[in-house]
Design a protein that fits this description.
One of its GO terms (molecular function) is zinc ion binding. By secondary structure, this protein is an alpha+beta fold. The protein contains 14 helices and 39 strands.
Length: 792
């Protein structure tokens, strides 16, 4: 949106430069495809003439820069892309206004400038590193100045000394020349670390402002020896700079790239602009102030020409936060506040807009009234002074992360013991989420070794039965399954192999008939291999139904908890103990329970079920181990470590990987090596910030990545000093001054032959055992230097 007092005109193409006449009533814009003169009206631009006319439109009409004589009303000069300097006369009759063409430069001309008091002198700066002064009366080159540097980007005559001009080049140098002496420059100094693109003289002070690619604007005092007075820091390379008329400390600038706005700076407050004009949609290519300090013109690559009024400027300082807070790694807080904050300025409420991200209204262009505008310019420089206050964190409890780092263990114990210790440390400092991660590591990677299964006692002999015709059945017992064992499947429907008890006299008959081998005196055999059926009491009549009917469940089936193995047992049988093949098969396949340890108690727990003592058959128990779903812990643990790292807790992520030891490879498919290195280096940097050098070295030592553990072999040096003279000795060499004298023990004053221990603070030492005995009783150095020695 264009402010109400800003006028704009569109061009046929982008303009590279503009210039005002001496009365600031007309403006000329020049570019590769545009060359026009406009009259500046109150609310509009009026085109006066178009200089890009004629039959032969050659490169002389494609301009990089344009200048208007400050004395002659109708004299213009342009710098063409083909290296020509063209002089134009607006008072010339006819369509063509071209007066003369100077073709003395071999490369592109970057800048042309008229002398401020001599209307016939015109100077140019070219890409060939030369500057030429043209005499318009003689229409020839008066003098040639060779800079012996790279290309010249700008030349400007000084308003304070008539015969002095400044030239800036792409190597960062600034040269001051006397127009009467072309042999060598008066002064030369390095102004910037990059190419200098523009310069401008102050109208009142002997100051020269330079703009460079290094994103700075520097103000130099050229009164005697060049001295840097002010430096302004911008966000992009600065392409043009112009001092604001009648304002001693204010200068306007525009960028070469990125930034499309025109900024007005106060050199006394170099980090934030005083005013900003953001009407252009592309990079601004030229700016020029009118005689009034409140109005200036600008052109851009967006093919537009604007006239800006200072009353329509936006002021970034009004919505910038004047306070700053920063927290150090050790918990110290620093607060910066303005020494003289700006008072509440009266703005136009209709011009303010609400910004959700800032949570407050943001002033826009033209929001200040004239009185507030003047007050802002007056108080703006004083707001640069700030008061810095530091609040130390001494005396408060230490950081829980630092405290945990001091007490964590990384090696020396099995994984589950290290995880258990670290979990206790984390919970002691109220880091319960971290403690939970350590508990998971302990449970997953801390399983005890499998135990050998105990020998099973033989079952008691079956009781005598009064009814010989009843089918004798005993409850089934599960073959105990232990850790890391699986069921062995038989050939009968793939069901788990179970043990079944066959009475001795029945088993003997079968043993004699089939010749099967079994334990002597034992009736326990595999139910899947035995295929046991009592042929004497079996009912061989065909059933009336195609499929046997399932018996109704008992009225009450209590569950019994096997305390030995932690399993739930429940059994059921048909009332009356039916032993038909159909019912027996149904009961075996349908039960999924576990045998209780006490069969008598289990049998009596069912109403209506007869016990073996009563002469009836007991319930048939079929048991097997419950199948548990297998869960892979590695991806879940990797996800937990990533979550903690995303929260900024690289300590947990790095230490869990270290503590896992040989199980660390389980996480490699889910955590790439680059992320592992990032965690380790981040944790090491954190420890070094808190001066936990020993812990950081321990982490480097336990690292499994070569890029991390190799840190211990880098930048490690021990400086050796002579114990007598204190002079620094060469590595692996004796002291040059004390070479004839061998090293003596500071305790016994004898020559040390063997292990030698010394203090790194005072360089005195001796026999290892002598130094140990001395330090156990004393704190000062045995050599008498007064140093508090410490023997590691």
């Amino acid at each position: 949106m264009i402010p109400s007092n800003t006028i704009c005109v569109s061009e046929e193409g982008p303009a590279n430069a503009l210039a005002l006449n001496k009365d600031a009533t007309q403006v000329v814009i020049a570019g590769r495809n545009v060359f026009k003169v406009f009259s500046i009206e109150e609310n509009d631009f009026t085109e006066v003439c178009n200089l890009r006319v004629g039959k032969n439109l050659n490169l002389n009409f494609s301009s990089i820069d344009v200048a208007w004589s400050t004395i002659e009303e109708n004299t213009l000069a342009t710098a063409a892309t083909n290296g020509a300097v063209v002089v134009w006369n607006l008072g010339r009759s006819g369509r063509s206004k071209q007066e003369h063409v100077f073709s003395d430069h071999k490369r592109t001309v970057n800048k042309v400038s008229f002398h401020l008091t001599e209307p016939a002198l015109l100077i140019s700066g070219s890409q060939d590193g030369m500057m030429k002064c043209f005499d318009l009366r003689m229409k020839e080159v008066a003098r040639t100045f060779i800079s012996n540097t790279e290309s010249i980007r700008d030349v400007q005559f000084s308003p304070h000394q008539a015969h002095t001009f400044a030239a800036v080049s792409e190597n960062g140098n600034v040269q001051l020349w006397d127009v009467r002496r072309h042999e060598r420059c008066l002064q030369q100094f390095t102004a910037h670390s990059g190419p200098v693109f523009a310069c401008d003289w102050h109208s009142e002070m002997p100051w020269l402002a330079t703009a460079s690619r290094d994103k700075t604007i520097k103000v130099w005092d050229i009164h005697a020896k060049p001295n840097l007075e002010h430096t302004i820091y911008t966000i992009a390379s600065v392409g043009h700079v112009k001092w604001r008329p009648q304002k001693k400390y204010q200068v306007a600038s525009c960028a070469l790239v990125l930034d499309c706005a025109v900024h007005v700076w106060d050199v006394r407050r170099p980090h934030v602009p005083l005013a900003t004009f953001a009407e252009h949609r592309d990079v601004t290519t030229a700016i020029a102030w009118q005689n009034d300090p409140n109005t200036f013109l600008s052109t851009s690559r967006d093919c537009s020409l604007y006239r800006h009024r200072f009353s329509e400027a936006a002021h970034p300082v009004l919505w910038a936060n004047p306070h700053g807070v920063c927290v150090s790694a050790r918990g110290d807080v620093t607060h910066a506040a303005p020494d003289c904050p700006l008072p509440a300025l009266h703005t136009n409420p209709a011009s303010d807009r609400y910004v959700p991200g800032l949570g407050r209204k943001q002033p826009t262009a033209g929001s200040l009234r004239p009185q507030a505008q003047a007050a802002l310019e007056r108080l703006f420089p004083g707001g640069a002074a700030s008061i810095l206050t530091r609040y130390s964190g001494e005396g408060r409890p230490p950081c829980c992360v630092v405290a945990c780092a001091k007490e964590y263990k990384m090696r020396g114990l099995p994984t589950h013991e290290l995880a258990e210790h670290n979990a206790k440390v984390a919970r002691a400092y109220n880091r319960h989420m971290v403690g939970h991660v350590w508990e998971v590591v302990r449970c997953v990677y801390g399983r005890p070794p499998p135990r050998e299964p105990p020998e099973r006692e033989p079952p008691p002999p079956p009781p005598a039965h009064t009814n010989s015709n009843a089918v004798e059945e005993e409850p089934l017992e599960e073959v105990e399954q232990w850790a890391e064992t699986q069921f062995h499947n038989s050939g009968v429907l793939g069901m788990p192999t179970l043990s079944i008890y066959i009475p001795p006299h029945k088993y003997k008959i079968r043993h004699d008939a089939t010749g099967a081998c079994g334990p002597e005196g034992s009736g326990w055999v595999s139910a899947a291999s035995a295929h046991y059926v009592d042929v004497e009491t079996a009912d061989w009549t065909l059933p009336e139904e195609a499929f046997p009917l399932r018996a109704p469940p008992p009225a009450h089936q209590p569950s019994i908890l096997d305390t030995t193995h932690g399993r739930t047992a429940a059994g059921g049988a048909s009332p009356g103990g039916s032993s038909s093949p159909g019912s027996g098969s149904s009961g075996s396949n349908g039960s999924a329970c576990t045998a209780p340890p006490n069969l008598e108690q289990t049998s009596s727990a069912y109403p209506g079920a007869a016990t073996p003592e009563e002469g009836e058959s007991g319930p048939l128990w079929v048991v097997h181990e419950a199948l548990r779903p297998h869960v892979e812990p590695a991806p879940l643990l990797a996800l937990a470590l990533r979550h903690h790292a995303d929260l900024g807790d690289v300590q947990t992520a790095a230490l869990v990987m270290i503590v896992l030891h040989e199980h660390r490879s389980d996480l490699f498919p889910y955590i790439d090596e680059g992320l592992q290195e990032h965690w380790l280096l981040g944790y090491i940097e954190f420890l070094q910030k808190h001066k936990l050098w020993n812990v950081a070295t321990e982490v480097v030592r336990c690292a499994w990545l070569s890029s991390v553990w190799s840190l211990s072999q880098q930048s490690s040096s021990v400086t050796v000093c002579c114990g007598r003279c204190g002079r620094r000795a060469r590595p692996r060499a004796m002291c040059d001054r004390c070479l004839p004298h061998p090293d003596l023990c500071a305790v016994c004053r004898q020559v040390v032959r063997g292990l030698y221990a010394w203090c790194q603070g005072c360089s005195h030492g001796g026999h290892l055992e002598h130094m140990r005995q001395w330090m156990e009783k004393h704190q000062l150095c045995p050599a008498g230097c007064g140093h508090h020695c410490q023997l590691g």
